[in-house]
Write a structure and sequence with these properties.
Radius of gyration: 15 Å
Helix content: under 10%
Shape: elongated
Order of helices and strands: HEEE
Structural class: mainly beta
Largest sheet: 3 strands, antiparallel
């Protein structure tokens, strides 16, 4: 269960929750949308985090539409 996972603390194992910071710079690790230039190793700025998706902006300044599920 999620409660059980939250209690686990083992050295060398990162927490299982993904913590994203709005306004931070991230590197895309997968090809999502080549037409929008959202490909592997592309740098993006996180603009908003929602329950099932994130909103990003590419470093070229072009805002992207809603992309893949964050979960």
């Amino acid at each position: 269960t999620a409660e059980f996972l939250n209690m686990q603390r083992t050295n060398g194992v990162p927490p299982h929750k993904l913590r994203l910071v709005v306004g931070a710079l991230y590197e895309v690790m997968r090809n999502f949308d080549p037409a929008e230039r959202i490909m592997n190793h592309s740098l993006v700025i996180l603009r908003a985090v929602h329950d099932h998706h994130v909103v990003i902006e590419t470093m070229q300044g072009k805002s992207s539409r809603k992309k893949r599920n964050a979960a």
